[in-house]
Hints:
Elements: H1 12-22, E1 26-27, H2 36-47, H3 52-63, H4 65-72, E2 78-83, H5 89-100, E3 105-111, H6 114-127, E4 132-133, E5 136-137, H7 140-148, E6 154-159, H8 169-181, E7 188-194, H9 199-205, H10 212-227, E8 237-244, E9 249-256, E10 260-264, E11 269-273, E12 278-285, H11 289-298, E13 302-308, E14 314-320
Parallel strand pairs: 1-12, 2-3, 2-6, 3-4, 3-5, 6-7
Antiparallel strand pairs: 7-14, 8-9, 9-12, 10-11, 13-14
Helix pairs in contact: 2-10, 3-5, 4-5, 7-8
The structure holds N,N,N-trimethyl-histidine.
Amino acid sequence: MKSTPMTEFDTAFAEDTFKGLINFPKYLLSKYIYNEKGDKLFQKIMEMPEYYLTNCEKEILEEHTAAIADSFNGPQGFDIIELGAGDGKKTKILLRHLAEKKYNFTYQPVDISQHVLDELEETLAKEMPQVEVKTQQGTYFKTLERLADYNTRKKIIMVLGSNIGNLLHKDAINFLKNIQNSMSADDMLFMGFDQKKHPQKILNAYNDPAGITEAFNKNHLERINIELEADFDTKNFLHWESYNPETGTAKSFLVSKIAQKVNIKKLDLKVSFEAWETIHTEISQKYDDAVVDWLASEAGLAIENSFSDGENYYKNYVFRK
Ligand code: AVJ
């Protein structure tokens, strides 16, 4: 192992990877899974039968479209700001309804990837040309800061997919606080939270027999191989999922099946693994009303309403400040 830590790194990815792999226990930050291949694998995950989250949220948006649309409306119409829009498949259910009912609104998808935004803009122009789209490239944080000064009419900030589940509670509260800071009194936050349920159902969603989630998890090592010139052999790692029904935390790991050394050239780092040593790679937090209520109140927000699927597997909450 390297004795003198580097003081400067080329990228945040390099620095975070270094920090995570010299830590005990080892970890990697899940946000780095999403390179081009990671995006594609996540699309595949959303199409798997085991990954119930997508269908549940789709069901909610389909079954409650009119009520949701109604709660969005303001005296001068409204602007939907969606953080992490992706391919917008689920959002389009809402947008189609809003356009048909001639609501006065704009759709402003925010994403770090200009490529994702360009594709979304293109499909929207084709499928519903009457919707006014203003894409916003950038980090959530920067965008929210900019939005704080924007107060001409009601804003609906939207975060779908239970994306908040990747954050520890303290980070989730900070994320919600950032959103709260950018909101005016009449603005709303519309956000999806995957719910606590039968532990087996949750484990199955993150441990599919086809191995797509395994490939998704291992893609992190492949990204390190490519971008940081490392020699991880992904065959020597096991994808392992755990779920703690007490805390509601699903945790993903890559477990080293053998004692091994990995060389990460660009970090000037040799990482040693004992047999069965772990790398923690992701959390996918599951919630209940009490926890959502607590997170919201810590961030100066209050639950105004919520919408659920038929099985109560998933909920979309409406928050106000
Ligand atoms: C995009 C964070 C909602 O945690 O359920 C899916 C990512 N990881 N399968 C989730 C994911 C493994 C997903 N989120």
